[in-house]
Specification:
By secondary structure, this protein is of the alpha+beta class. About 45% of the residues lie in helices and about 20% in strands.
């Protein structure tokens, strides 16, 4: 699949008249392609939209070429932009989570792409005491961060098995 991916990238980048180089790194979840070019801004686009579009096209082409069984997801990064953006989002998500934990008020974020929302959800999940959900549709899809509801947090007594006649996975009926 790596050779096929290389052929696809050569063709697409050639059609876009971009000069530069790329490295393909096979990972457990798929392939990470790091592209270096002097014209990175044109390839990334506003808020990464061109890069997302190119990544979608590359994944669709590869899926058709190798079929569902041999397919591995391809993630594109141009001049380290995606990696830097992920690190920024992780830091912001921690700050947003702390803000909600301290204030007790829900926080509605600006719309962001699916991969960016995923990064934020993962960071918030690790923090504990918070819940997050994506709401809205299309370009307006965004995250709402809230304190985790008491219904979904087991009490210390229940987690220790004290004064509990319910099975660990059994939930109390909602009133």
């Amino acid at each position: 699949m790596e050779q096929q991916l290389s052929d696809v990238l050569d063709n697409l980048l050639g059609m876009l008249l971009l000069e530069g180089s790329y490295e393909i790194e096979e990972q457990e979840a798929g392939f990470l392609v790091s592209i270096d070019t002097a014209d990175a801004g044109r390839l990334i686009g506003a808020r990464g939209e061109s890069l997302e579009g190119l990544q979608l096209v590359v994944n669709q082409i590869m899926s058709r070429k190798v079929g569902d069984e041999g397919f591995k997801r391809v993630i594109l990064d141009v001049s380290g932009w995606r990696k830097q953006k992920e690190e920024e989002l992780e830091s912001l998500a921690k700050n947003w989570g702390k803000e909600v934990l301290e204030s007790g008020k829900e926080l509605e974020l600006e719309p962001m792409s699916s991969w960016q929302r995923r990064v934020v959800h993962m960071v918030l999940q690790e923090m504990g005491g918070l819940s997050s959900e994506s709401v809205g549709e299309g370009r307006d899809r965004h995250i709402v961060i809230k304190l985790q509801s008491q219904d979904s947090v087991p009490s210390p007594a229940a987690s220790l098995g004290e004064n509990s006649d319910k099975e660990p996975n059994e939930q109390a009926p909602k009133e």
